[in-house]
Design brief:
Shape: elongated
Helix content: 55-70%
Low-confidence stretches: 62-67
Oligomer: single chain
Number of strands: 0
Order of helices and strands: HHHHHHH
Distance between the termini: 99 Å
């Protein structure tokens, strides 16, 4: 049996090893840079022996004595409405809650919890009977359920 070597060509650049090599050549530097960056941000550069691990964003703001706590829009709205409830009455707070939900539909999923918080605060401020008199069908009567849950 005779083996022919006349029609054998080399596979220059067409094999799977070549494709894997190119992929690694592109991906490996990115992975190394990212892992090095993450490792550096986890090093305790302050010299203290505290167990707190700072991220890069926290490390840059570590010199600030009072750091602002990021608050969600629903937390801001809840605090504002609870303040209105104390200064004016629960009816005004419920009206503003409905207006806020109509103006920003993304707040609708938080409407029930905010209305219940208003109901609980109204019971503490006005008592259960007077607080119930402010009930409206805002957020599926959640205000009334907050009043009832606090009363009973």
């Amino acid at each position: 049996m005779k083996h022919s070597t006349t029609n054998q060509r080399t596979r220059r650049g067409r094999g799977p090893a070549r494709r894997v090599g190119r992929t690694l050549a592109l991906v490996l530097p990115v992975v190394l840079v990212l892992s090095g960056t993450l490792a550096v941000t986890r090093v305790n550069w302050s010299g203290t022996t505290s167990n707190s691990v700072l991220t890069a964003a926290e490390a840059s703001s570590a010199d600030v004595s009072t750091r602002a706590v990021s608050r969600t829009p629903q937390d801001i709205l809840r605090d504002k409405l609870l303040l209105e409830l104390q200064e004016k009455d629960p009816g005004v707070a419920l009206t503003h809650l409905q207006e806020a939900v109509n103006g920003r539909p993304s707040l609708a999923k938080h409407c029930v919890s905010i209305a219940r918080a208003l109901g609980r605060a109204a019971v503490r401020a006005y008592g259960p009977t007077r607080a119930q008199s402010f009930a409206r069908p805002v957020c599926d009567t959640s205000f009334a359920s907050g009043v009832a849950a606090t009363h009973f």
